[in-house]
Design goal:
Helices cover 0% and strands 50% of the residues. The protein is mainly β. Strands 2, 4, 5, 6, 9, 10 and 11 form a seven-stranded mixed β-sheet that branches. A four-stranded antiparallel β-sheet has the order 1-3-8-7, with no helix packed on it. The radius of gyration is 13 Å and the shape is globular. The mean pLDDT is 94.
């Protein structure tokens, strides 16, 4: 059974960094793209970043380009989201999800989701 578990969220000051982890089990990387999404209170869920099943292609929302980096450690079955230069508007619950492909980061392409981890950027 495909399972995703996020960790690494927390409280950080503006300008700080966090690294989120998404530990995966029950499937092989060859068949699934892994995306990171976020949802702030009162807002729709939005795509943040995605890594293709081959691991060779990435895409990012414009709002995080140059600040966030997605990567994968095959040996640990884990996908990471390194978040630098964090801003208060990055505050949200962050989810990782497995899908057929990254597309344009539409969450409808992703069928399996983790439980989420809270990221709060505040002074």
């Amino acid at each position: 059974q495909l399972q995703l578990v996020e960790s690494g969220g927390g409280l950080v000051q503006p300008g700080g960094s966090l690294r989120l982890s998404c530990a995966a089990s029950g499937f092989t990387w060859d068949y699934y793209a892994i995306g990171w999404f976020r949802q702030a209170p009162g807002k729709e869920r939005e795509g943040v970043s995605c890594l293709s099943s081959s691991g060779s292609r990435t895409n990012y929302a414009d709002s995080v380009k140059g600040r966030f980096t997605i990567s994968r450690d095959n040996a640990k079955n884990t996908v990471y989201l390194q978040m630098n230069s964090l801003k208060p508007e990055d505050t949200a619950v962050y989810y990782c999800a497995a899908g057929i492909n990254c597309g344009s980061l539409q969450y409808s392409l992703f069928g399996s989701w983790g439980q989420g981890t809270q990221v709060t950027v505040s002074s």
